[in-house]
UniProtKB/TrEMBL annotation:
One of its GO terms (molecular function) is 2 iron, 2 sulfur cluster binding. It comes from Paracoccus laeviglucosivorans. The keyword DNA repair does not apply. This is Rieske [2Fe-2S] domain protein, MocE subfamily. Keywords: 2Fe-2S, Iron, Iron-sulfur, Metal-binding. SUPFAM superfamilies: ISP domain. Transmembrane segments: none annotated. InterPro entries: MocE_2FeS (IPR012747), Rieske_2Fe-2S (IPR017941), Rieske_2Fe-2S_sf (IPR036922). Residues 8-104 form the Rieske domain.
Amino acid sequence: MRDTVNWVTACHLDDIEQEGAIRFDHAGRTYAIYRAPDDSVYCTAGLCTHEAIHLADGLVMDYEVECPKHSGAFDYRTGEALRLPACANLKTYAVEVVQGEVRVAL
């Protein structure tokens, strides 16, 4: 039996500034959706792995997001923790843009 992917519409591409992030809540969970410098879109778990702070409120530069509380940083493309105090990686989710809508595979 083939697994089915549940694509959920999160926002419109125009809702996210280039090199920016927005918060997306769905089914009791929080996610962060990022728009990269090349206009590609990514999604990670929305809370910092160090202290559960919303990453969409952090600084996004190039392909990194910095936690607004303690300046831990992640590569939002892979979820990799790049700078302490963040030491656990973020979960990432597949994203597609269809007719301007950003959809996340949850």
